[in-house]
Write a structure and sequence with these properties.
The chain contains 13 helices and three strands, in the order E-H-H-E-E-H-H-H-H-H-H-H-H-H-H-H. By secondary structure, it is mainly alpha-helical. It has a three-stranded antiparallel sheet with strand order 1-3-2. Strand 2 and strand 3 form a beta hairpin. The protein is rod-shaped and about 100 Å long. The model has no long low-confidence stretch (mean pLDDT 82).
Length: 257
């Protein structure tokens, strides 16, 4: 016989289990959960076995079983509470996995619908530039560069979010400003080379860049009027300084790698 000290009133049990007193009264009425004892005044008292049975009831309810079916299962002489708990656990694990997958899908959808994470359009990519200039650049790229490289660059850029693209643009600007500050130092100066390493990493946001390609790109900065103008706006002859520093990095770092 259970000790009175381990017994709980209907209100205490309701608070512990997160159910209403009315629910426990209903469970008693239909024979699903009868209290183990009553006080002299007739008040319900629930012991440890009752608490375990209520746990099973609530777990089966999570599986959407009707109360009558739950009562039949629990009253079956062959019912094994340990096996049932193990099955409950596995069922809840599977449900948690499904819910986690759904949450991940929802998060991805929200991200795709959030302005900051929408893929770039051509208009956003070339914002502020004359349409004729953009078209000329595209034709020049198609004529000058390996089509596979161009396709990879386009794929990477258009896969970026607006936030990522803005970060890439900001890094490119920061590199150019830093190189302008370093002008006058030798191409092999450690700080110059550390900044050019950032330039190489920045370029690889768009496509894999070998030593030969990196050196050729530096020469292109110096030779192409629009590239030269873009760098020289930071400081006159920055394009030449970039070319020399990139050539040094290609020969002494990328080639050795």
């Amino acid at each position: 016989m259970e000790k009175r000290a381990s017994a709980h009133t209907v209100r205490q049990l309701a608070n512990m289990a997160g159910v209403s007193v009315r629910t426990l009264h209903h469970y008693d009425h239909i024979g699903l959960l009868r209290p183990s004892a009553r006080t002299a005044a007739g008040y319900r008292l629930y012991g440890t076995k009752d608490l375990l049975r209520l746990q099973q009831i609530l777990l089966f309810k999570e599986l959407d079983l009707p109360l009558e079916e739950i009562r039949r299962i629990l009253d079956d002489p062959g019912f094994d509470p340990v096996r049932a708990l193990a099955q409950h656990r596995r069922t809840l694990e599977l449900r948690a996995e499904r819910l986690a997958h759904l949450l991940h899908t929802i998060d991805r959808t929200i991200a795709r619908l959030t302005e900051a994470d929408m893929s770039l359009t051509d208009e956003e990519l070339y914002e502020g530039l004359p349409k004729e200039q953009v078209e000329r650049w595209k034709r020049e790229v198609d004529e000058r560069y390996d089509p596979k490289l161009v396709a990879e660059s386009n794929r990477r850029v258009h896969a970026m979010s607006k936030e990522q693209w803005n970060a890439v643009k900001a890094e490119g600007d920061a590199i150019s400003r830093r190189m302008a500050e370093l002008m006058g130092r030798p191409a092999g100066d450690p700080e110059v080379q550390a900044t050019i390493a950032r330039q190489h990493a920045w370029i690889e946001n768009f496509y894999p860049c070998s030593a030969e390609m990196f050196q050729g790109l530096g020469q292109h900065y110096a030779d192409h009027p629009e590239f030269r103008a873009n760098y020289d706006k930071y400081r006159p002859d920055l394009a030449d300084f970039m070319r020399d520093a990139m050539a040094y990095y290609a020969e002494h770092t990328l080639t050795e790698a």
